[in-house]
């Protein structure tokens, strides 16, 4: 029996490269996400390419260079609100549509991204903050 990694099933390097490019072009134009990202998204795009490669069972490109992913810890210096997590996921879905990803491998990847995105949330949405402040 041939067993494929999710990395292979989605189309490997070429697909991930296209995906991160399409995704960060959207991030660059998004009013909710743009403010917390660096001006130049080149390195961010490259890091995400490396991370997603290993996340899906490809070579451990990210860890080879940056060490243990510790993604939640690496996101702590940014305000990741539930709204930002939903927007991140929405833009990822749009990027997947744009590059023509489909089928069970895409669905699998997206479900795992939902879990990670929710795990990254470290701040309440503004309404909640205001609500608590007024108590
Ligand atoms: C939930 C919403 C998310 C927001 C708002 C967010 C935001 C950010 C921001 C602002 C950075 C810093 C960019 C930089 O300094 O270059 C970053 C880095 C990164 N994010 Fe996210 N992120 C989210 C979810 C995710 C998810 C779900 C993943 C993985 C599947 C992820 C993977 C990464 C990686 C690999 C980096 C680079 C870390 C490094 O500096 O080495 N992020 N993210």
UniProtKB/TrEMBL annotation:
> Is Transcription regulation among the key words of this record?
no
The record's section on Gene3D superfamilies has: Globins
Classify the source by domain of life.
Bacteria
A Pfam family reported for this protein in Swiss-Prot or TrEMBL: Bac_globin
Its keywords, alphabetically, are:
Heme, Iron, Metal-binding, Transport
Instruction: Indicate the family of this protein.
Output: Belongs to the truncated hemoglobin family. Group II subfamily.
**Protein name as annotated:** Globin
The species is Aneurinibacillus thermoaerophilus
């Amino acid at each position: 029996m041939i067993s494929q990694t999710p990395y292979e099933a989605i189309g490997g390097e070429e697909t991930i490269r296209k995906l991160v490019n399409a995704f960060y072009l959207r991030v660059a134009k998004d009013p909710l996400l743009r403010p917390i990202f660096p001006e130049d998204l080149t390195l961010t795009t490259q890091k995400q390419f490396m991370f997603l490669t290993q996340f899906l069972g490809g070579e451990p490109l990210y860890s080879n260079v940056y060490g243990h992913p510790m993604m939640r810890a690496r996101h702590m210096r940014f305000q990741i609100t539930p709204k930002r997590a939903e927007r991140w996921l929405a833009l990822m879905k749009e990027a997947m549509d744009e590059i023509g990803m489909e089928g069970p491998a895409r669905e699998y990847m997206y479900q795992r991204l939902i879990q990670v995105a929710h795990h990254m949330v470290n701040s309440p949405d503004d309404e909640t903050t205001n609500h608590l402040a007024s108590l």
